[in-house]
Amino acid sequence: MDAPRPRVPKWLRFLRERIPVNLEIFEELSREPIPNHMKNWWYCLGGTPLILFLIQVVTGILLTFYYVPSPTHAWESVRKINEELPFGWWIRSIHHWGANLMVVAVILHMMRVFFTGAYRKPRELNWVVGTGLLFTTFGLGFTGYALVYDQLSYWAATVGINIAQQTPLVGPWIARLLRGGDTVNPTTLTRLFVFHAGALPAIMLALVGMHIFLLRIHGITELDAPPEVQQTPLTVEEDRAGKRRYDPDRYFAFFPDHITTELMVGLFLLTLLTVMAMVFPAPLGEPANPDETPLHIKPEWYFFPVFRWLKMTSLSVGMAGMIAAGALLVFWPFIEGLWQRRRPRSEAAVFVGAGGFILFLSFLLWEALS
Asked: Cβ distance 52 to 269 under 8 Å?
């Protein structure tokens, strides 16, 4: 005699009839095998900037309720958030330090991917998407810093746009797009606000979606696996058949193990941001004065290497160097692929990566201490 079928609750039948989604798809995703090396936080840094981005979205939405993106009211609205709005200083400080930690997390994640070779065939395009996320993060930092509209942020944004104007071919167009004209004017702040609160977050979400899509297709690089396994992703048929799935010596489950790890990271980040917000509240300088240039204009710390490089060279040489460095970063997987065809055992990537990081860190500290 067949056992009676379990009775399905009415609410569940209601949802199934109106949202006919195959739940097995979500069950399959939750059983995604994760290589054991991802148990270490250093190797799963990709989730950290995503968590920080979500924190930035939430705190940013709260700030937009009170921020006024106009030259006559911007600084005053920030002051009111800091001094009059209950817990406004806390929300703004978390947003401020979250932006800084997000830059650090993205850079560390890209370093991990670079030095473990996780950008190599067939994952080159995901590296390109990752560089797009890095540049978008810098764009969010630049536009957000300008919105404070105090003396340093106003002049740093002005100098930054003037530097961008020197980019060959597209520089004047980029400058006019950001300024809303040929010079900095009342429209500029509105333009920067639109980029910070609308355009760049939309680009970020699109790139994150593409990043996760490519990661899901190719899988995570197995650092302790043979090279042929690292470079050959599972086919759809092999994935559904459970090939290499749940070998306890090499894999652990996405849910609940990996999700639990990410939740713990998120809790740690919230605690750290709260402590930083209380100990080092977000600063606010004097109101912006377009008629008075400060003696020392400096951008945010993550632009220090670029600022130092431009100080050391002429503007044309500096821009050429920045474009060359950016192109090298974006297309490195393809450049290394061509190089390895001639020298398969070459370890040039390690020396290039170490040299680039030492140069970045040296310029950053040089500018910070000058």
From this structure: yes
Summarize pLDDT for 20-59 with one digit per residue, the tens: 777 666 666 666 777 776 777 777 788 899 999 999 999 9
Domains and CATH numbers, the chain: 33-293 (1.20.810.10), 300-370 (no CATH)
Token output for 90: 């806390």
Query: What would the mean pLDDT of 267-288 be, rounded to a whole number?
Result: 93
Among the listed residues 30, 26, 36, 28, the one whose alpha carbon sits nearest the alpha carbon of residue 252: 36
C-alpha distances (whole Å) from 144 to each of 136, 149, 180, 230 are 12, 10, 17, 39
Please give the model's pTM, rounded to 2 decimal places.
Answer: 0.87
- Say if residues 150 and 285 touch (Cβ distance below 8 Å): yes
pLDDT at 236 over 60: no
| Each residue's pLDDT tens digit, 343-358 | 877 788 899 999 999 9
